[in-house]
Amino acid sequence: MAIDHAQAGFVRRLDEHRGILFKVADAYCRNRADREDLVQDIVAQLWRAYRRFDDRKSFATWMYRVAVNVAISFYRSETRRMRNVVPGEPSIVETIAQPPTEEPDEGLALVRAFIERLDPLDRALMILYLDDNPYASIADILGISQTNVATKISRIKQRLKLEVATHQP
Fold first, then answer.
1. Using an 8 Å Cβ cutoff, are 69 and 120 in contact?
2. What is the rounded CA–CA span in Å between residue 169 and residue 165?
3. Cβ proximity of 156 and 118 under 8 Å
4. pLDDT digit string, tens, across residues 18-55
């Protein structure tokens, strides 16, 4: 099966910016299977929307926007699904699916836990901010104003500082 020009361009761009997929999936999913499902959902949605991509715009910005929107929808549907699950020990599949981890830096673990507790929009905002995206790009991706981006980041930083201060020995 031959790959047409559009598919080749899509695959090339997707490969160049593949890190975005994993950053977004890592921020919204706790286990490997869910991350893999989310990445597949994002890629499928990117492909469906690719014909509407404007070459005059940044592919990375567009990709972030699609990925974040898919992740937020995935997170919300997963949250609804999890409300119906009886709490208990992780299943054998979930335990095996977890990649081996090194002992994380305590400060990094605290920041990651803080980000995981943020609402979906603020979580996306922090992913983009920590990835050194300019406020204009963050605003474009999330569909909010640059002033709103700056205000939200400032408030989140203040909350994080307060949380870190309360966890000091």
1. no
2. 9
3. yes
4. 999 999 998 888 889 999 999 999 999 999 999 899 88
Give the Å distances, CA to CA, from 115 to 89, 95, 119, 125, 160.
Answer: 24, 23, 9, 10, 9
What predicted TM-score, i.e. pTM, was given to this entire model? 0.67
Max CA distance (Å), the chain: 61
Per-residue CA distances from 33 to 37, 97, 118, 134 (Å): 6, 7, 22, 31
Given a contact cutoff of 8 angstroms between Cβ atoms, the answer to whether 114 and 157 are in contact is: no
Alpha helices in the chain (DSSP H): 5-16, 18-28, 32-50, 59-83, 92-97, 106-117, 120-130, 135-142, 146-166
Amino acid sitting at position 41: D
Instruction: Give the residue among 156, 132, 136, 154 at the shortest CA–CA distance from 146.
Output: 136
The residue written with tokens 């939200």 in the block is: 152
- SS3 call for 36: helix
DSSP per residue, 125-169: HHHHHHTT--HHHHHHHHTS-HHHHHHHHHHHHHHHHHHHHHT--
> Is the alpha carbon torsion for 97, 68, 39, 106 positive or negative?
negative
Question: What is the average pLDDT value for the chain, to the nearest integer?
Answer: 82
Q: CA 23, CA 19: separation in Å to the nearest integer? A: 6
